[in-house]
Amino acid sequence: MTVYLVGAGPGDPGLLTVRGAEVLARADVVVYDRLSVASLLDLAPPHAERISVGKTPRGPSTSQDDINALLVEKGKAGLEVVRLKGGDPFVFARGGEEAQALADAGVPFEVVPGVTSAVAVPAYAGVPVTHRGLSTSFTVVTGHEDPWAATETDWEAVARVGGTIVVLMGVATRGAIAKRLVAGGLDPATPATAVRWGTRPDQATVRTTLADLGAVDIEAPATIVIGAVAGLDLRWFEDRPLLGRRVVVTRAREQASERVTRLRQLGAESIALPAITIA
């Protein structure tokens, strides 16, 4: 029995690691969160139990204590458990808390790192977090309201570090964060880019400045990049011809995979819904 804390990546199912796919393929139980991609659940065996424990901002959520208890319970039952988490399990994903709960309970576990949204989402929006002549470093900071990062974090110090600033979970506090960064010495004209649902077919990018960051319309979940690199526009993903389209593939499951893959390459969200079975 093992509980695998698996990073699902930021959204594009192709960013799941090979190791992540391996453990999903033999899972007895998959415990997944709100940011996990639904199509990744298809990688688990048909008999695997699928349990949603998603957290919704200001909405229905499963408490972290309940998630920890569930993982311990399923692990002690001798099952192969995959805890599928968005991004990387140890980057603002409470994977450390879950690992600690499993360790305290004597339940074997393994951490399978994932591609973090802090790097992948800017890349899909055409924004490199480092760039020669513009930025030699990047800082990743949470902007989450609880605890309220706009007061708990020394944003003035973050501003003085220089380089690129990547803010995760900071949509609600972005105005206050921007003010603190300006107070720390950043130019109000510093470029800022916010990417909603990055790496997914419904990705949307908003480009603005630090001074206007709090006023522009940005919806969660979004990754916010602040710094000179945010002024670059090396877009490639959002130029795909079918981006934002949802296509249902009704072919038999044995025949659908190639069509589904091609549609995703063109930017569409493809849904396999077999209307026929070959038997």
Counting copies of identical and different chains, the oligomeric state is single chain
Mean pLDDT: 90
Poorly predicted regions: none
* Structural class designation: alpha/beta
Following the backbone from N to C, one meets helices and strands in this order, namely EHEEHEHEHEHHEHEEEEHE
Strands of the widest sheet, in order across it, are 3-2-4-1-5
Largest sheet, in brief, is: 5 strands, parallel
Q: What Rg is obtained from the alpha carbons, in whole angstroms?
A: 20 Å
Strand content: 15-25%
In the CATH hierarchy, the third-tier topology of the largest domain is known as Methyltransferase, Cobalt-precorrin-4 Transmethylase, Domain 2
**CATH top level label of the largest domain:** Alpha Beta
At the fourth level of CATH, the homologous superfamily of the largest domain is: Tetrapyrrole methylase, C-terminal domain
Give an overview of the whole structure.
It contains 8 helices and 12 strands. Helix 2 (64-76) crosses helix 3 (95-104) and helix 6 packs across helix 7 (174-183). The model has no long low-confidence stretch (mean pLDDT 90). It is globular and about 65 Å long. It is of the alpha/beta class and 279 residues long. It has helices at 18-25, 64-76, 95-104, 117-124, 149-152, 155-161, 174-183, 253-265; strands at 2-7, 29-32, 49-52, 80-85, 109-112, 138-142, 164-168, 191-196, 204-209, 222-226, 246-249, 269-272. The protein starts with a strand and ends in a 7-residue tail after the last strand. It has 3 domains: 2-115, Cobalt-precorrin-4 Transmethylase, domain 1 (3-Layer(aba) Sandwich); 118-238, Methyltransferase, Cobalt-precorrin-4 Transmethylase, Domain 2, CATH 3.30.950.10; 242-279, no CATH class.
